[in-house]
């Protein structure tokens, strides 16, 4: 089995590496455009890394931006990798992109230990068709020299994606929707998805490291009641995001979430 890059095996190191603001500036993301901005300037959109959103929208395929690109919309200084999009049917969406010059590639090696973001889903890049025709194998996934797009099933990520593009009002999920979804998925991931669990935990922790809106009074009211205890614990000044990268922490919050659902626990602020 292929090993992932060393920074993914060493999660604290991966966290620090992902947070670097000055290294590899060509990979730092600008906040993605909103739907209205995107559709009012299609010529710019078609030449940007967010162009797949526009292509899918015009083909009647709803999608939202996920992963690192979504984080940058909320002041998180992460380095971006491939563009992750949530769609209803990844294979159908892949065919649409393939009809607009995108070609299948191998999975991104950065996420080899997270099959939900690599082997189990389609990745496409803008490799020239002539080059693909001459290759016996698929082009290799390379998010540094040739960033691609990875299509994720919205159902797996528990995201309530609109059924039609007419119901889509933005390519970026709202802050509360993004947090609610990530927390909900993280809490229920099984032991055999440990790498995905830690990957999501890192993203959740980033909001409490960099985003100021989560610290506004009463922001918890925008979150589902069953997710509020996670929010309260991450707000503590002395709370280390690294603590979130443990099975014990996940099980602790799963138990609290289940108690809240049964009406046996009331979320409370902690000091």
Structure description:
This protein is α+β, with helices and mostly antiparallel strands and 271 residues long. It has 2 domains: 6-10 and 19-167, Beta Polymerase, domain 2, CATH 3.30.460; 175-261, no CATH class. Helix content is 39%, strand content 7%. The chain contains 12 helices and 5 strands. It has a 5-stranded mixed sheet with strand order 1-2-5-4-3. The chain is globular. The N and C termini lie far apart (45 Å).
CATH class of the largest domain: Alpha Beta
In the CATH hierarchy, the third-tier topology of the largest domain is known as: Beta Polymerase, domain 2
State the major sheet: 5 strands, mixed
- Radius of gyration, in Å, reads 19 Å
CATH architecture of the largest domain: 2-Layer Sandwich
Give the terminus-to-terminus CA distance.
45 Å
- The 3D shape can be described as globular
What structural class is derived from the secondary structure elements? Answer: alpha+beta
Number of helix segments?
A: 12
Number of strands: 5
How many domain units? 2
If strands are numbered along the chain, what order do they take across the biggest sheet?
1-2-5-4-3
What is the averaged pLDDT score? 81
β content, as a range?
Answer: 5-15%
The unreliable regions are 1-33, 38-47, 132-136
Question: What sequence of helices (H) and strands (E) makes up the elements?
Answer: HHHHHEHEHEEHEHHHH
């Amino acid at each position: 089995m292929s090993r992932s890059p060393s920074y993914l095996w060493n999660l604290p190191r991966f966290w620090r590496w992902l947070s670097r603001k000055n290294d590899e500036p060509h990979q730092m993301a600008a906040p993605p455009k909103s739907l209205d901005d995107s559709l009012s300037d299609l010529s710019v959109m078609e030449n940007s890394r967010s162009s797949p959103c526009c292509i899918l929208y015009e083909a009647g395929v709803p999608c939202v931006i996920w992963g690192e690109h979504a984080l940058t919309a909320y002041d998180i200084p992460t380095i971006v990798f491939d563009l992750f999009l949530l769609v209803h049917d990844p294979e159908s969406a892949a065919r649409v992109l393939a009809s607009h010059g995108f070609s299948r590639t191998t999975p991104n090696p950065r996420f080899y230990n997270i099959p939900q973001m690599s082997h189990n889903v389609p990745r496409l890049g803008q490799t020239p068709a002539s080059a693909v025709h001459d290759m016996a194998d698929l082009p290799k996934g390379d998010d540094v020299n040739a960033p691609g797009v990875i299509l994720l099933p919205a159902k797996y990520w528990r995201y309530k994606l609109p059924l039609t593009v007419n119901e889509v009002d933005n390519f970026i999920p709202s802050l509360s929707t993004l947090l609610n979804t990530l927390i909900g998925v993280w809490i229920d991931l099984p032991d055999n998805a440990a790498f995905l669990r830690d990957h999501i935990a890192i993203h959740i922790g980033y909001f409490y490291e960099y985003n100021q809106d989560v610290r506004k009074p009463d922001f918890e009211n925008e979150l589902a009641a069953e997710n509020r205890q996670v929010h309260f614990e991450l707000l503590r000044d002395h709370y280390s995001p690294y603590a979130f990268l443990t099975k014990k922490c996940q099980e602790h919050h799963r138990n609290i979430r289940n108690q809240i659902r049964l009406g046996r626990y009331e979320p409370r602020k902690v000091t």
